[in-house]
Amino acid sequence: MLRLTRGALSDEARRARNQTLRNLADPLSEPRDAVVTLAAFENVYNEGSNGNPHPKAEPNWSTQLHQTLSEKARALVPAESYQDGAEEVRRLGGQLLPFEDAQSRGGGTQTRGNDTWESIVQEGLRKTYRQGRGLMRQVVANADASDEEWHELRKRVKDLGYQLNLLKKVRGIKPLLRKLDKVGTALGDARDLTLLRDCLGNVQDKNEFTPFDRWNYQRLLAHVEERSQELHRRALKVIGGVYRRGSKRFAARLAKRFRQWQDG
After folding, report:
1. pTM of this structure
2. DSSP string over 87-149
């Protein structure tokens, strides 16, 4: 919402509100990562072990890793870790998006009668779309795009999906949302595998692996990489249909359809 309505809030007000929400979310990111990494490990372990010469045997490293991930995923999040962030959000009260009296509170410019779309929605929507389109072209042009580039693309795809979901009654939005959901799911699954790969890289005492341990470990790493590439390809097959227009044309087209919907 803060990204979408950037045209109605000053940069200072938006940054302050954004930081407040980040302060609440940050303590929860590590437990969330543990949960999805555990799920990714459980999903790919059996797939990656096809052809196991000892199908009933499980290497020590995988048993220990599974136990560690399980403990982290199921650990309670201490309340004190997010209480300060929650209190900051409470202080905002109803002032998260203070459009009606924005000037009196220093929140930005007031909206003007019949240009509500332009002053509240269009600038933020165009920027979100432009950022996603730029990142798409970046990863398409670079066969060795970094994990961070893919992750940023996923975040911008999610932003656009959340924003368009507010406008889903407008003609043409629902098919676009279905594409964004497919892309977001594929990139989200690939991101979870990135977290798992990093976790596998931190496995201790690899120099003490038995031949079976080493075979199992390398095979799983290879499977994670293959699966990630497959998910990236799946996302790119769909994403071109989302970002096929320039950002100005996209926003103008949507503005026209929004007004048609308003007029009935």
Report:
1. 0.85
2. HHHHHHTT-SS--TTHHHHTS-PPP-GGGHIIIIIIHHHHHHHHHHHHHHHHHHH-TT--HHH
Over the Cα atoms of the chain, what is R_g? 23
Mind listing the pLDDT tens digit for each residue in 23-43? 999 988 988 999 999 999 999
Query: Is 139 in contact with 145 (CB distance < 8 Å)?
Result: yes
The structure tokens listed for 64 are 């220990």
Structural tokens at position 222: 């290879």
Helix%, strand%, coil% for the chain, nearest 5: 75, 0, 25
Count of residues for the chain? Answer: 264
How far is the CA of 78 from the CAs of 24, 72, 75, 103, in angstroms? 13, 13, 9, 39
Query: Hey, what amino acid is at 255?
Result: A
Residue 250 in contact with residue 160, Cβ under 8 Å? no
Question: Encoding tokens for residue 118?
Answer: 């332009």
